[in-house]
Structure formats: C-alpha cells, structure tokens
Amino acid sequence: MAFTEANFQPIGGQAKAGNAPQVFSYTTPAADAIADVIASGYFNDVADIVKVGDMIYVSDTSVPTGSLVVVLSNTGTVVDTSDATALTVTDGS
Fold first, then answer.
1. Fewer CB within 10 Å of terminal CB in the chain, N or C?
2. How far apart are CA 22 and CA 18, in angstroms?
3. pLDDT class for 20, splitting at 50, 70, 90?
4. Is the previous residue joined to 29 through a cis bond, with omega within 30 degrees of 0?
5. What pLDDT shows up at residue 15?
6. Is the pLDDT at 83 greater than 80, yes or no?
7. For 20, which DSSP code?
8. How far apart are CA 60 and CA 54, in angstroms?
9. Could you give the CA distance from residue 50 to residue 85 in angstroms, rounded to a whole number?
10. In which band, very low, low, confident or very high, does the pLDDT at 65 lie, cut at 50, 70 and 90?
11. CA-CA-CA-CA torsion for 12, 16, 19, 22, nearest 10 degrees?
C-alpha cells in the first residue's frame, strides 16, 4: 500500500481553479486495491496540492475499474477521502 506520486496528475485547467473543486486522476500501483486508496492518509504526499471538495478519478489497475473519491478533510499533513463511487463500465460487444 504505497501512494505513487508519479501516477497522480491534474485534469483540466488547474491554474484557474480558484474556489472551484479541482479534479485529479490517479492510477493505482497493481498491488493497491481501492480499499487501500480510500484509507485515511493514502494521499498524504499530495496534502499540499489537494483541498477539501476536490475529486480524484482513481483507475484501479488491480481489477481494472474506475472510481471517484472526494477529499473530505486535509489537515495539511493528513488527507482523508470519501468511500469510492464506482463508475459502471460495460462492454456491449
């Protein structure tokens, strides 16, 4: 269970975010399941980047699936996110 900062990237026009929530993407290392990612403290390495209300799209490579989490609190050193909202993915072919 180890956050990999190289897998964490902003989406869109972050420089103009102001008070609006920012959106980030994160691709998990193969060993990290979504349960690891939503644990309090997982995103501590980017505590200086994320703020309460920001959303993180998580691409879970162990399954593969996609989920959204929201930053619920950030003390400046400890980041806590919401439980993951799984995105429904289907393949009709």
1. C
2. 9
3. confident
4. no
5. 62
6. yes
7. S
8. 19
9. 19
10. confident
11. 20
